[in-house]
Amino acid sequence: MIPKEIFQKVRRIQITTSRMVTDVFAGQYQSVFKGRGMEFDEVREYQPGDEIRSIDWNVTARMGHPFVKKYVEERELTVMLLLDMSQSSYFGTVNKLKSQLAAEICSVLALSANKNNDKVGLIAFTDKVEKFVPPRKGMRHVLRVVREALYFKPKGKGTNLPQAIEYLNRVTKRRTVTFIISDFYDVNYKMPLSISNKRHDVIAVTITDPRELKMPDIGMIKLDDAETDQSFILDTSDRNLRRSFNINAIRKLRERKKIFQSVSVDNIDIHTDVSYSKDLFRFFRMREMKRR
């Protein structure tokens, strides 16, 4: 039995994101993700203009005159959401925690898939795979995905992106559209990402808080690394320290983008201090133009 307060929160998320799906992404999802490919439909008699390579030689030999194979686009998709639930996601200095933002984005994507009658699945991970919800259709299933994204309590603290990506490849038998929703504070994920993107259509959804990019001047502070439990005392009034932090943060950001570009993975860059709807809309528009 779902507690009343959790049910109400899921319903609020559903109502908010449903409006966004209807108003902002109506039609774009379908035009961007048009299916995995072509599947066999039927055999029919050859007509002038048909391609020679589509001739079914077995049927042609049996019938005594040419027949061709007819294919149709396979419409149904499987959408997988890989959700980073490591401790670094429970951080946010503007509007929302990164974890709350990630749950809302999961909701938007899941509802968009459901509106198009596609399957949706969820893999929640930290330094290990914590939860796997196999892909299915239907609003009831989508609400379960939203609930898990919002309220599942992971046991791990760290981040292991390669393991989560490898797990995706093991549990999915066919091509999927996979959104990896994470801050990507990890190493050695380039190769697994490249391998997975050859089999799936992988999109990296990066979530960043402004305080992760620029250190404010607020004097002596204690910082705790949520994933390693290490503590640091820093004097943020030190100009050189702030400069070094800011340069290092920008460098990591550029390295992350360089990895995505090198393995041909599209990136939706989300920040906690601005509305994510514009960034999602921009991604859908970009994908739509690519397909033309």
Quaternary structure: single chain
Question: What's the name of the CATH homologous superfamily of the largest domain?
Answer: von Willebrand factor, type A domain
Could you give the distance between the termini?
A: 47 Å
CATH architecture of the largest domain: 3-Layer(aba) Sandwich
Taking all residues together, what is the mean pLDDT?
A: 85
Strand content: 15-25%
Provide the CATH topology of the largest domain.
Rossmann fold
Strand and helix order: HHEHEEHEEHHEHEEEHEH
Helix content: 40-55%
- Total DSSP E strands: 10
Unreliable segments of 5+ consecutive residues: none
Number of domains: 2
Q: Looking at the structure, what is the overall shape?
A: elongated
Query: Would you tell me the structural class of the helices and strands?
Result: alpha/beta
Strand order of the largest sheet: 5-4-3-6-7-10
Main sheet characteristics:
6 strands, mixed
Number of helices: 9
